[in-house]
Amino acid sequence: MSPILQARAVTYGKMDRHIFPFLRRESSPILKEISLDLQEGQTLGIIGASGSGKSTLCRILSGLVAPDEGQVLYQGQDLATAPVQVRKEIRPAIQMIFQDPYGALDPRQTVRDIVGEPLDPAPDRDARILTALKEVGLSADMADRYPRAFSGGQRQRIAIARALITRPSVIIADEAVSALDVSTQAIVLNLLLDLRQRHGLAYVFVSHDLAVIRHLSHHIAVLDQGRIVESGPASDILDTPTQPATKALLENTY
After folding, report:
1. How far apart are CA 65 and CA 58, in angstroms?
2. How far apart are CA 93 and CA 91, in angstroms?
3. Does the record's keyword annotation contain Transport (predicted)?
4. Measuring CA to CA, which of 47, 136, 172, 184 is 20 to 30 A from 195?
5. Which helix (H) or strand (E) holds 197?
6. Architecture of 5-253 per CATH?
């Protein structure tokens, strides 16, 4: 089976300007020659120390940022170079859930506006919003409230509903439960597992919590200083790591 999402030799770095605008110095790339595959209906866990490039990788895989070198392919189509109409069709298929359930939602918008924002005006727009809220365990009467009325866990459910509204195939979650307390984390994780099974979703899931990664992931990739140093089935990586970076992560967790 072909992967639904692929990275092929992705490199990303930043250019720092000197005093003279025509002189530029390239800093060490944030990501270096990243290659990975995400299979349909499965979860790829991404782990690594702080500053290893995890959040940058999420933004590149989602198409929010283009790599300097290499490719990100969705069903074989390059997110950066595909024809405009193809990219427009791909965009709803890959959605992101961010870490901060407080900062990710516009406090000036109602839940109805937040969840429905990715949709074009359509006769079924309101019905789809209410369906998305129901799928994440929120009631219809919450649609016209503002984010300030909700707890952190409820806000993250709103963010998940917003991701679901476009009927995606891939959801990229960047530390999506790290800001929640342990009991709320468990509820949200079980919701994500249920949604994966119900809709055949594929996840890229970034977390510093290896218990969370073990709970969700089929495969794991370990980032260290912008490179993937180890990847494979989740149980192999977590139970019999071979790389010093992976061993260090496990030692700092347990």
Report:
1. 9
2. 5
3. yes
4. 47
5. helix 182-199
6. 3-Layer(aba) Sandwich (3.40)
Pick the closest to residue 115 from 100, 105, 102, 103 (CA basis).
Answer: 105
Decide the pairing of beta strands 15-17 and 24-26: antiparallel
- What b/e string do you get for 81-108 counting C-beta neighbours within 10 Å, with b at 16 or more? ebeeeebeebbebbbbbbbbbeebbeee
Query: Does residue 149 sit in helix, strand or coil?
Result: helix
Written as six digits, the tokens of 51 are 């500053």
For the chain, the domains span 5-253
What DSSP letter does each residue of 13-80 carry, written as one string? --EEE-SSTT-EEEPPPSEEEEEEEE-TT-EEEEEE-TTSSHHHHHHHHHTSS--SEEEEEETTEETT
What mean pLDDT do residues 21-50 have?
A: 85
Residues 6+ apart with CB under 8 A from 210: 47, 238, 249, 250, 253, 254
The first and second tokens of residue 193, run together, are 């597992």
Query: Torsion angle of alpha carbons 157, 163, 169, 172, nearest 10°?
Result: -80
What pLDDT does 253 receive?
A: 65
DSSP 3-state of 98: coil
Higher pLDDT, 120 or 62: 62
